[in-house]
Amino acid sequence: MAENTAADASTAATPATATPGSPSHPSDPPRPDLAAMVVPLGRTLMAAEQPILDAHGLTMWGYVVLLHLDEKPIRTQAALAEAVRADKTRIIPVLDDLEARGLLRRQPDPEDRRARLLSLTAEGRHLRDATQAAIQEGEEHLLARLPAADREGFLRGLRTLHDLSGQP
Amino acid sequence: MAENTAADASTAATPATATPGSPSHPSDPPRPDLAAMVVPLGRTLMAAEQPILDAHGLTMWGYVVLLHLDEKPIRTQAALAEAVRADKTRIIPVLDDLEARGLLRRQPDPEDRRARLLSLTAEGRHLRDATQAAIQEGEEHLLARLPAADREGFLRGLRTLHDLSGQP
DNA sequence: TATTGTTATACTCTATAACTATA
DNA sequence: TATAGTTATAGAGTATAACAATA
Predict the structure, then answer these.
(1) pTM recorded for the entire structure
(2) Cα B22–chain centre separation
(3) pLDDT at position B28
(4) Which strand D bases fall within 7 angstroms of a protein CB?
(5) How many independent structural domains does chain B possess?
(6) Is residue B125 part of a domain?
(7) Is B11 close to A71, i.e. CB distance below 8 A?
(8) To the nearest whole angstrom, how far is the Cα of A77 from the nearest Cα of chain B?
């Protein structure tokens, strides 16, 4: 049996999360590692997105590309790849597919024919909007289960940390 | 919904081309998708953990296993695998390594010799504590950049959503 | 020569299937 | 027969390296 020596519980008593059936009593400050909460939550969110993406005929990478292209037209595929934190070779099949379906244009830059000017078509923008609306509707469903007070701080904190993780 | 910085204008710039459908949703979402913030943040946190794990001689899976074993002794490897959301075959090399280094014990259950009783050794618990202390210290550094008000709500909201994602 | 995009290859991670041992 | 654990194999996803086009 485990010897739960109380001595070693200095700052690091471990959380007993995820044991279904027993609501946690977080009366004590010990918290799980951030990554141990953020990463599984991210997986859950992605799993929740998947059926919506399927219904809209988009892969996750395709959706990510549409999102980043809509913000502002991008001049090179390498820049797009960096923006979505992907390898430049990884998005090529994605662009091939989106272009073939008329969701984006990939035109050689007249001023530097090596580069490809990337822009969304009207169809691409429409699909992006519809997909994002559905996704965020699902997310609102989840956020609704947060106390109103926490919800504000959670969203602001998440946004801040996300923005920070760009430039450390 | 607070008005935000001008940087948000890029994400909010959704021309939408007079989508005539249903403007009954004036909830044009000026926020990124949750997954689009949570997943990259998770990757950043993992990347920040990596050097600490290296310094302590642990892989990420090894650390995860130590964390979950410390909570309470687990009776079967399959249960452990499910707890850490991994395939049962995926953690076997991890357990092999941790056992060989004396960080955990893997004893056949006398009552059912098919099962392996998993328990942490004192060394395993000590390494776990030291590693987690270092990781959370790094995380505190990041959390310190949040406004105090947001920080509380962020941590509570994150914890709530993480707990929710266990049982949908 | 350097850079953009592309293709081909190799590597990493993960899951599936088959095997051993206990029950 | 069924279950826990293990091993071997195959698959998906990703990155690395070599190539063609343009500058």
Answers:
(1) 0.83
(2) 39
(3) 56
(4) 3-8, 14-17, 21-23
(5) 1
(6) yes
(7) yes
(8) 19
